[in-house]
Structure formats: structure tokens, C-alpha cells
Design a protein that fits this description.
The protein is mainly beta. The protein has six helices and 36 strands. A hairpin with a 3-residue loop joins strand 11 and strand 12.
Length: 634
């Protein structure tokens, strides 16, 4: 560790010769966290935006590693490099965060464990928007405690990018991305293959990603098409229970969508999508146990118009969810063969239809903004649910704004919540949707080179779904509706961009600091919680990006995490508290002409930590990579 620290500190303070590069500033970026159009500076909610420049310079290899440093986002990883991760926001569970790809909902109805099975490489991402707090009023069910929208980009030039990365534990990653563009059509296609032998026994993985995005300009409209495929397999050492360390998982994800956007005074956006996820789980590697296939398709229609009274949006969405399984659902009259598997059959199935109708209106003046909306949702299994909400802000000055909001959210049980039966878990077909009312208030400060925000929040949840045990002698975790679960906390963040430091003649491109405190309490019931009461109580995150000499730059990301809750330490089943830990990642980039060479070290301090009890996380991991951008227009 000392030699790495000496190397980085020496580079940081060497020679005194620096160059300055700008990073994109965000106040006027149009965001997608409401149905009515809105730019970042108008928002009355806590929204974190990660720009393309930040993503490219970050010392990470996957989307979940990138989110590790976003305020009050809790990433609980199993494995490394996006193998499998649970994503939650503000003390919620991994099933309570909605993931979107270019505005299209991506969550899997089987389980939130699959929500991060994103067939998108980090190089494809143009921007990430993280909305903290409820978003059911905008996005419907399952945006319970927050939403993350991953937005991919289309370069305006004809380019070919080739990348190659290698590292410890026989890690490799290779990718190619082809972009073409003319006046009427832009296309982007990428392919990547990555893998590793793993950092301990049975943590090896292989992953293939294919992604295509196209934008076609029509008369007064644009048509966006996207298609993606992921094939992933990995050793799952103790992922679901430490009693079986030799678990193994294979998943395949297919995703297609089309969005038509147009209109002048009356603007409309119509989106259709389809997603299929196949999973094979082996409790003992080499002996398949569970097979699942989920299929989701839907349509979303939004109509926007302006008037003297402000901006108004109305629309509807429809979503169909279906599962085939040998474990989850109701018994099939006739078993269905599992594709490419001889003498293996799906024996169970379930499906449900979801209809949402919404209206939202926003009004902006020089000093105030006001937004109110209502979503009415009908589910073929769980009947009607409603999600109203109000956001308000008042500008004390041109740079200081007070904001407050109150919103209702809800989440439908997953098929795993309802039906799963295994060696250590049993589902509950009588579950009902969980609901919450959330309150938020705070201050924002925004100017040309500084942004800061602070907020307090409270979420009163009812019928919260969790896997629990009533006693230490109970063998299996059961899924239950907890009567009440209340969550509250405080957040603070400051963001300084390159222009702030250029005024001080400092070689810094960006500085970000955030802190979040969260507290979750249950009001009734004497039980041990598997998920709901294991949350990040304290999270401090820091990002520093600076130049060294000409094309040489450095990016540091640090995070302090202190988790509440306990786990049963295997094999003695002693209730053990999570220990706080510090993670530090660093990346050195050298850009010369169209080449980019980098050295990256994850977990520089070689911290020993758990995101999930008994699942050992990797220590220090060194990687090196190179990429080249080839201009095909010349």
C-alpha cells in the first residue's frame, strides 16, 4: 500500500506544471424526473447528475461502482465489476428503487437482485440522473424511495473506439464502439466482453454486452430505437446463504424499445418496450436447481402543453409482467420446456397487468415554482392505488432557493416475495403492496461555479415488505408485510467545478463532497430483519479530479460507510454488527491525441469489508487500460 501512496502523492505535488480543462456544468441541463419539462435549476427535489466528463474520468469499471459515490445511494455488491448488486436510496430496499434506461423502466418483476443486470457499458452512458425520494407520481409503481435514469449518448461524428483493459486476478475487458451520424440518422453500436478468475474461490465471472442506439429525425419528430443483450455467468460464493459457498448463476437479458417524440404546441412522446430476463440458479455449482424467465412489455404515452398557467402533462402507461419458473407462481396445466435444456421444464407461472393514468401541472415565476400531480394505478392482482404529490420552491435570491415536497409512493410485491421456497427462504402469496408518504425540505445554492444543497427527509411506510425471522430458532426467512417502518435523515452536498478553481489558479477540475445520515425504525413487531433494517446510517463521499501535466490527470474517489443492522456470522451464527469502512479508488489518465492510457487502483487501502453479511468483498485491485478513438470522417 505504501508504494501506491508514494506514487500518487509524488505525482500530485511534482513539478508544479499544470494545465486546466473544463467539466460540464449542470444548472441548465434538461432533466427527466418529472412529466413536465424541467431544467436542473428549476427542480424542487434532490437530484444528482453525473455528467459524461465525470463518468469517463471516474476510477471505476461498472455502473454500480460509479453509483457507490453518489449521495445516499446504497450499493450492496456481491462480487465485483457489476456481477450482481443491490441498489437502494435513502434507506430503502433494493426492490424500492426504479431503474430506467433512457426513460424506459428496467426493473425485473422476479426480484430486485436483477435490476442491475444492465446490458450497457459505462462507455455508453452520457449522463445519469439520480432522484432521491419517491417518484411513483411520475414513474408509477416501484419508484418507492428513488429512481435512477441512465441516459446513453449519440456522438455527432463518425468514430470507432477500441478499448482493452487488464488487471490482477486475470481480469480482462475488451470493447469496440462504432458511431455513425448524418443529417437524418445517428447510430451507435457497441460490443464488450469481460471476465476474471475471481479474487477468491468461486468468484469468477464472464460477461458479454451488446448495445445499439439509433436516432432518426423525421418531420417535426424524432424516433429513438434501442436494443441490448447481456449474457452473464458467475460464481456466487455465499451470495444467498453461506451454507452453500459453491453457488453459481447464469443470466441472459434482452431489451428493445422505441420512442417517438414530436409536436410543436402540443408535444407528445410515445414509448413501447419489451424485456426478457432468463436466470438459472445452482445452489451447488454444476447442479441446476431453479430456472426462471420473466417477460415484460409496455407502452407509455405522455402529452405536454404550455399555457399562461404553466406546463401541463397528461398520459397513461400499460405494463404486462409474466414469469415462467419451476419455483415461482401457480402450477401450469402443462409444463413448458426450458429452451436449450433437455428434459428441463417450467412447471409454474404467473402474470399481471398494470395500468397507470397521470396528470401533472407545473407553474414557474421569478420567485416561486409549484408542481402538483396525481397517478392512478390499477393492477389486475392488487387493485387500485393512488400516488399524489406536491413540490414547491421559493427563491430568496438569484442563487438561494428553499424547496419542499410531499409525495406518496407504493411498490408491488415481486414474484420472489410472493412465491419463493428454498432451503433458507419461504415466500408469502398473501402479501399486499407497500405504501409510504414522504416529506422533504431543504435549501439549494446554485451559481456559475458552485452548487450546494441540504435537505431533511422523512418517509412513513406502511405494509413494508421484508424477509424476517421471529426467533433465532426459526429455520427459514419469511416474507411479511411489516406494519410500519419510518425512515428519516439529513443530507448535504457541495460541488465545485473547474471555473471555481481556475479563479484561484489551482489545477483542479472538480471537487464534490456529500454526507448523508439515515435512520430507520420499526414501530411494531418483534423480529429480525434480513433487509429493511440493514441500511447505510452514515455515508460520506468525496470526489477530487485534478490535472498533473498537460494530458496527465488524476481522479480520486473516497467513501466512508457505516451500516446499521446485523448479520449472522457463519458458521457459528453469532449476531454480528457491520463494521464501518473507508474505500479509496484512484485513476491516473494520460490523454495524448486520440489515445487514452490509464492506471486504476480500486480499494487502495485494501479494506476488509462486507456489503452483505458473509459475502467477502475484494481487496486492492490494480488495472491498466488503453483506448483509441478513430475519426472515420477524415
Amino acid at each position: 500500500m505504501k508504494r501506491y501512496l508514494f506514487l500518487y502523492i509524488s505525482i500530485l505535488f511534482s513539478s508544479g506544471l499544470f494545465s486546466q480543462s473544463d467539466t460540464l456544468w449542470i444548472p441548465e441541463i434538461e432533466i427527466n424526473t418529472k412529466r413536465t419539462p424541467e431544467v436542473y435549476s428549476e427542480s424542487s427535489r434532490i437530484i444528482t447528475i453525473l455528467t459524461k466528463a465525470e463518468i469517463e474520468s471516474a476510477p471505476v469499471q461498472s455502473l454500480v461502482d460509479l453509483l457507490e459515490y453518489v449521495m445516499n445511494v446504497d450499493i450492496r455488491q456481491r462480487g465485483y465489476n457489476g456481477v450482481q448488486s443491490d441498489i437502494s436510496i435513502r434507506g430503502g430496499s433494493f426492490d424500492q428503487t426504479l431503474i430506467l434506461v433512457n426513460g424506459i423502466p428496467f426493473n425485473d418483476p422476479q426480484t430486485g437482485h436483477h435490476n442491475a443486470d444492465l446490458p450497457i457499458d459505462i462507455d455508453n452512458i452520457d449522463r445519469i440522473e439520480v432522484l432521491e425520494g419517491p417518484a411513483s407520481r411520475t414513474f408509477g409503481p416501484n419508484a418507492f424511495s428513488g429512481a435512477i435514469n441512465i441516459i446513453t449518448g449519440l456522438p455527432e461524428t463518425n468514430t470507432l473506439k477500441l478499448s482493452l483493459t487488464g488487471g490482477e486476478n486475470n481480469l480482462y475487458s475488451t470493447s469496440a464502439a462504432l458511431n455513425t451520424s448524418n443529417k437524418s440518422v445517428a447510430n451507435s453500436f457497441s460490443i464488450s466482453k469481460k471476465g476474471s478468475d475471481g479474487y477468491i474461490e468461486n468468484t469468477d465471472y464472464q460477461m458479454l454486452n451488446l448495445f445499439y442506439l439509433s436516432r432518426i429525425k423525421l418531420n417535426n419528430a424524432t424516433l429513438d430505437l434501442q436494443a441490448a443483450h447481456q449474457d452473464k455467468s458467475f460464481g456466487a460464493n455465499s451470495f444467498y446463504t453461506p451454507k452453500y459457498p459453491n453457488q453459481y448463476v447464469q443470466t441472459k437479458t434482452k431489451f428493445i424499445s422505441a420512442s417517438l417524440k414530436g409536436g410543436a404546441e402540443l408535444k407528445h412522446k410515445t414509448s413501447v418496450y419489451w424485456k426478457q430476463h432468463n436466470g438459472q440458479f445452482e445452489l451447488v455449482r454444476g447442479n441446476p436447481l431453479n430456472y426462471h424467465q420473466t417477460q415484460v412489455y409496455g407502452i407509455d404515452e405522455t402529452i405536454n402543453f404550455h399555457s399562461e398557467m404553466g406546463k401541463t402533462a397528461v398520459g397513461f402507461s400499460y405494463r404486462h409482467e409474466k414469469i415462467l419458473s419451476n419455483v415461482l407462481g401457480f402450477s401450469l396445466d402443462e409444463p413448458k420446456n426450458v429452451k436449450n435444456e433437455a428434459d428441463v421444464f417450467y412447471t409454474k407461472s404467473d402474470k399481471r397487468n398494470n395500468y397507470s393514468f397521470f396528470i401533472e401541472h407545473s407553474y414557474y415565476s421569478k420567485r416561486t415554482s409549484f408542481s402538483a400531480g396525481l397517478l392512478a394505478n390499477y393492477n389486475s392482482v392488487f387493485d387500485w392505488h393512488f400516488a399524489p404529490g406536491i413540490d414547491f420552491s421559493y427563491n430568496f435570491t438569484n442563487h438561494i432557493k428553499f424547496f419542499a415536497s410531499i409525495n406518496k409512493s407504493f411498490r408491488l410485491p415481486t414474484f420472489t416475495d410472493l412465491y419463493y421456497e428454498g432451503p433458507t427462504n419461504v415466500g408469502n402469496a398473501d402479501l399486499i403492496p407497500e405504501e409510504a408518504i414522504s416529506f422533504e425540505a431543504g435549501l439549494k445554492f446554485i451559481q456559475e461555479d458552485v452548487a450546494a444543497e441540504m435537505a431533511v427527509f422523512k418517509r412513513d411506510g406502511t405494509n413494508i415488505i421484508d424477509w424476517i425471522k421471529y426467533s433465532d430458532t426459526q429455520e427459514k426467512w419469511e416474507s411479511k408485510n411489516i406494519t410500519e417502518l419510518n425512515t428519516g435523515g439529513f443530507e448535504f452536498a457541495v460541488h465545485l467545478n473547474s471555473s471555481f478553481f481556475s479563479k484561484q489558479n489551482l489545477p483542479i477540475n472538480q471537487f464534490k463532497l456529500s454526507y448523508a445520515f439515515t435512520n430507520v425504525s420499526k414501530k411494531s413487531g418483534d423480529f429480525t430483519s434480513k433487509y429493511a433494517l440493514d441500511y447505510l446510517k452514515h455515508k460520506l463521499a468525496l470526489n477530487l479530479s485534478h490535472n498533473i501535466y498537460k494530458g496527465l490527470s488524476m481522479n480520486w474517489q473516497a467513501s466512508y460507510q457505516d451500516r446499521a443492522g446485523t448479520y449472522l456470522a457463519y458458521p457459528v451464527d453469532i449476531e454480528t454488527e457491520y463494521k464501518p469502512f473507508v474505500l479509496l479508488d484512484a485513476k491516473m489518465n494520460w490523454e495524448i491525441q486520440n489515445w487514452d492510457v490509464y492506471l486504476e487502483v480500486a480499494n487502495l487501502f485494501d479494506a476488509n469489508y462486507f456489503d452483505i453479511g458473509n459475502v467477502i468483498m475484494p481487496g486492492r485491485w490494480v488495472k491498466m487500460g488503453v483506448s483509441i478513438d478513430i475519426n472515420l470522417s477524415k
